Amino acid sequence: MLKTLIVYAHLLAACVAVGILLMQDLALAKTKGNALSATAVKDLTKSAEIMFISLVLLWISGLALVLLGYLENPQQYLMNEKLWAKFTVVSVLTLNGIALHYYSFPRVTSRRGLLGLPTFEQILVALTGALSTTSWLFACYLGIARPWNYTVDFSFVMFIYSGLLVSAFIVAGEVLRAMRKADAGQASVSEPLPLNASRKFD
């Protein structure tokens, strides 16, 4: 009964975190890199707080499940290499969460917006966002990938994870490039003509 409740809390925290993450990704994409409104910043701040609570709950419930699993099968449980791969992915997303909180979040919510940042900072914000989404989704997949228990190597799981990260980074780069291109086109259209420009057509 206790293990079932812990598993339920673990899954619930993961579902809440991933749901909020995907909704915020969509909301940020709709801004097209422009400065966020006060309401959007408030929503993003609240979402970040909920995700932090979810992450803490995931760590607590995850460690509790590992302890219970070890007590049930002390000789074999820790030999599951998929388990260590999952801990690695969750550790990566946790460290990346710190980078998001202290680096990316202040820049995304600044008055300049994403496209108002220097190019290097734009790239780092995009990469940390892609890393977060990919890591959360892959960690959730590892949680349900029971056929991988005791059957796959740590290196195999991390190879898959690395491939997904590379793909996510490429997509993030293309999205950022499209945003910058659209912003440059909009700026050129809105640029006023010189006062003497009309005389060239007289």
What's the main sheet like?
Answer: none
SSE pattern, N- to C-terminal: HHHHH
What form results from the Cα inertia axes?
elongated
Question: What are the segments in which pLDDT stays under 50 over at least 5 consecutive residues?
Answer: 197-202
Task: Report the strand count.
Answer: 0
Provide a compact summary of the structure.
By secondary structure, this protein is mostly helical.
Structure write-up:
With 202 residues, the protein is mostly helical. Helices cover 77% and strands 0% of the residues. The protein has one domain (2-186). The longest helix has 37 residues, at 154-190. The chain is elongated and about 60 Å long. Residues 197-202 have low confidence and may be disordered.
Features:
disordered C terminus, mainly alpha, single chain, 202 residues
List the helices and strands and how they pair.
Layout: H1 2-30, H2 38-72, H3 81-108, H4 119-144, H5 154-190
